[in-house]
Amino acid sequence: MKAKEIRGKNQTELENELQELKKELFNLRFQHATNQLANPMELKRVKRDIARVKTVMRQQELGQLVSR
């Protein structure tokens, strides 16, 4: 997921996206622990997507504080 796509979403969509990514990360970690994960790079991708979503959420939060 690109940062540009993430920035186009509102706060509730970002929260939903973050929740979905955390669920996906949990499932991937479980698969990795049981040696069922075909592509371990998926863990890295999901972690980075979570970081991107959190970053954009924080940027929006700070933007609202500054505009007040």
Please explain how this structure is put together.
This protein is an all-alpha fold and 68 residues long. It has a single domain (3-67), classed as Orthogonal Bundle (Helix Hairpins). It has helices spanning 3-7, 11-33, 41-67. The protein is elongated.
What labels describe this entry?
81% helix; Helix Hairpins; single chain; elongated
**Rounded average pLDDT:** 94
| CATH architecture classification name | Orthogonal Bundle
Give the termini separation. Answer: 31 Å
Order of helices and strands: HHH
What CATH first level would be assigned? Mainly Alpha
List how many beta strands DSSP finds.
0
| Estimated radius of gyration | 14 Å
Described by strand count, sense and barrel closure, the largest sheet is: none
Q: What is the secondary structure topology, with strand pairs?
A:
Layout: H1 3-7, H2 11-33, H3 41-67
Q: Short description, anyone?
A:
This protein is 81% helix and 0% strand. With 68 residues, the chain is mainly α. Helix 2 (11-33) runs antiparallel to helix 3 (41-67).
